[in-house]
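Researcher: Next sequence.
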Amino acid sequence: MTTQQRNWKRRNYLINPGFQLRFMFYIACGMLTGFAVIYFTNHWYINILNEQGRELGLNPGHIYFEFVDQQRRLMNIAFAVVCTAVFTVLMVCSMLLSHKIAGPIYRVNKYSREVIAGDVPAYPVSLRKGDFFPELATMVNDLVAHSQQNAVASSAAAEDAKVDSAEVAAAPRKPASIEGTALEGDEVWSMDAPGRLVTES
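Model: Next structure:
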């Protein structure tokens, strides 16, 4: 395993902070909105219980109102604890999920830039187990392999053309001659290789 492959296996959970933090922010906004809806729904329900007690004509110091107030306090404590735990767990999960999304894109992008720069790695691009978009790695590896095959074929064709040109240049050439035929009664002329004009009756 090369050093580059070993470095890739090191855990860096914020390899694309711009995308991942924005992703986590959207998840947090959704959770906080849900928490707010639940809190105000509980608050509205407690107020309904107090209103029903007043409609029954109960004294404000009645044990019923003490019970409702106690339930409000317990509900607020439980709500705060549960929301904190859920928020923490979901933030960690959203970071891990965004890492599984951003990791493959980062890896394929880095590998593609190396190929474009002419520094084709000796190993194919590979993703970690559980990463999203595994088809990206397959596509890039197939594309690089196809490009390398085309480059080899083009190089072989260029070498063949060079050999053919060398063989043509090295082949012996026959002396050229020009002959002409006249009509009946005229002279027949020809030009030999040195360039002398020869006439025949």
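Model: The mean pLDDT is 77. DSSP finds four helices and three strands in the chain.
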